[in-house]
Design a protein that fits this description.
This protein is an all-alpha fold and about 425 residues long. Helices cover about 75% and strands about 0% of the residues.
């Protein structure tokens, strides 16, 4: 009898040990999975593999929560506007000109939002010592370096020159629009990295990556990318309350613009200074505005290609006209797509989401000492990334694919750092 009890006890101990090791393995898988997804986000051709990997990680995480009988949901400051946007767009799907397509596009957005909540959960529960946050930043640094290196090598190999933008640097299996949006997202984080790191070698790595990013941004020859950087710089000056910084950025932007105009007069970057793309966008936006006036609340259908489906006849009829007179095959603005596609309430919710995100991440930036801020410098940097991303999306539809995945991972990281810092402050005040 005693021997039977000992055998049962030993069997129970072995079972508990196996369960413990299994749970630890799943937690480690979640941690390294987040780092891996961050790095994969820099390569658009890996999007489907990234998607499969994410849903596998999500399923494993939910299984662990079920075993532990814990809630997988986490509260964030942007829950109300973000879920409001998702809910409203879903309500407009039945009124779309192509409900099946609009529902498919809505599902894609929901999948990216799930990346945000999953990333937030992993960072809040499995990153007690902030090691995972640092690993995510490492993935951003290495991904930025790899992406910029590829773009510059591709630019040179295809005969790119500094005289004009007939050849433009692009992201792997994608184009210059994707590349410049990546660089808008990562530039503030790279600058923060240089301030955070104490090691000379790590700072040198940050500076080399920063230089590669800037050169790749120049080689992309995308005006909207530089507009986004200028807005980021001015936003930094406003957030920190430094008037001289704002004036300096304004003067620098004007000087840079004047230099490009001057060079265009003597044969350099004439294509870059040609305003036809802006003129074509304005004409297309006017056509979209007419659609909005007819359907101000529910729009005509969520999704990038809804506009093309509605105006195929006009687009085909004008395809032989000059570039300035053409109607573009898309609205070329994420905000215009949301407004025309799902109505005024949808635009309100998405703007509220982004404004709330920026406010949360920027909170307390004036009180930061750059020499001692450490990892607390990352949330304001990510806020600048969000600002630049929004500016970039005002001129193109870039809120998709691996770019959207990287965006939501960065937002999850920034809000998690802020939540941890606020929790520590509350504990200190309670003591």
């Amino acid at each position: 009898m005693k021997q039977d009890i000992e055998i049962q006890s030993g069997s129970s101990d072995v079972k508990e040990s196996v369960n413990f090791r299994s749970k630890r393995a799943i937690r480690e898988l979640q941690r390294y999975g987040l780092v891996g997804l961050t790095f994969m986000s820099f390569f658009p051709f890996l999007f489907h593999y990234q998607e499969y990997a994410f849903f596998a990680l999500l399923a494993a995480g939910l299984s662990l929560c079920w075993i532990d009988r814990s809630m997988p949901l986490v509260r964030t400051p942007i829950d109300v506007p973000l879920l409001g946007f998702i809910g409203w767009v879903l309500c407009t799907v039945p009124f779309a000109i192509d409900p099946a397509y609009s529902f498919s596009e809505w599902r894609k957005f929901v999948a990216h939002v799930l990346i945000f909540y999953w990333g937030t959960f992993v960072l809040r529960h499995y990153d007690k010592d902030r090691t995972l946050i640092r690993q995510v930043v490492w993935a951003v640094i290495l991904g930025s370096l790899a992406l910029s290196g590829y773009a510059l090598e591709d630019f040179i190999s295809r005969g790119g020159t500094w005289r004009d933008r007939l050849v433009r640097a692009g992201a792997p299996t994608s184009d210059y629009n994707w590349l410049t949006t990546y660089l808008v997202l990562v530039l503030p984080i790279l600058i923060a990295w240089v301030f955070i790191r104490q090691s000379v070698r790590m700072r040198m790595l940050g500076l080399v990556t920063l230089l590669a990013v800037l050169l790749a941004q120049v080689a992309a020859y995308t005006r909207a990318g530089w507009v986004a950087h200028i807005v980021q710089a001015i936003s930094l000056g406003i957030a920190t309350g430094r008037k001289r910084l704002i004036i300096g950025f304004f003067v620098g932007a004007i000087a840079m613009g004047a230099a490009v105009v001057t060079f265009s007069k003597i044969g350099y970057q004439q294509e870059t200074m040609d305003p036809w793309t802006l003129q074509a966008r304005v004409k297309t936006w006017k056509l979209g505005l007419n659609d909005l006036i007819e359907h101000p609340l529910v729009g005509v259908g969520y999704g990038n290609y809804t506009f093309f489906k509605m105006h195929t006849a006009e687009i085909e009829a004008e395809k032989h006209k000059t570039a300035e007179e053409k109607v573009l095959p898309g609205l070329h603005s994420t905000f215009a797509i949301i407004l025309v596609g799902s109505g005024v309430p949808a635009l309100f919710f998405i703007v509220w989401t982004m404004a709330r995100t920026i406010r949360e991440l920027m909170g307390g930036v004036r009180a930061l000492d750059l020499r001692e801020a450490g990892i607390l410098l990352l949330p304001p940097a990510i806020a600048l990334s969000v600002i630049g991303f929004m500016v970039r999306n005002a001129f193109d539809y870039m809120f998709a694919g691996t770019l959207a995945s990287l965006f939501w991972i960065l937002v999850a990281a920034g809000l998690s750092i802020k939540a941890r810092a606020q929790g520590v402050s509350k504990e200190v005040s309670d003591i």
